[in-house]
Amino acid sequence: MTDIQNLEDIKQMVNSFYGKVQQDDFIGPIFNEKIQNRWPDHLEKMYGFWQTVLLDVRAYSGSPFPPHATLPIQKEHFERWMEIFTQNIDEQFAGPIADEAKWRAGKMAEMFNYKIEYFRNANQKPLT
């Protein structure tokens, strides 16, 4: 098994991950309801995001949090997302960049969950 090295690896990682997400009984319906027929656009955006984060290629700009801010999700949804993400990486890649992907995904899930909870508890709308 090799590490994540280029855009083709990023595409493989993203496509296989979101393929599993779409089929998942727990988080799949939330993603499918939100994204609907815009999966190709979402995947393109994710290629750019992970290319920027993992390969230091400036392929993404924007703020990843706002689209997630109002989703009907709880900590358990983030845990399931991470479970699928980690398993997906471990099935295909091994090395420091693969480890970095899992670490960054975990930090992102933690931060998104925290921010969503904060806005819910404060009964405020997040800035978009």
UniProtKB/TrEMBL annotation:
Positions bound to heme: H42
Statement: the UniProt record of this protein carries the keyword Heme: yes
Keywords linked to the UniProt accession: Heme, Iron, Metal-binding, Transport
Pfam families listed in its UniProt record: Bac_globin
Molecular function as annotated in GO: heme binding; metal ion binding; oxygen binding
CDD domains documented for this protein: TrHb3_P
UniProt key word Nucleotide-binding: no
InterPro entries: Globin-like_sf (IPR009050), Globin/Proto (IPR012292), Hemoglobin_trunc (IPR001486)
Protein name: Globin
Organism per entry: Flavobacterium suncheonense GH29-5 = DSM 17707
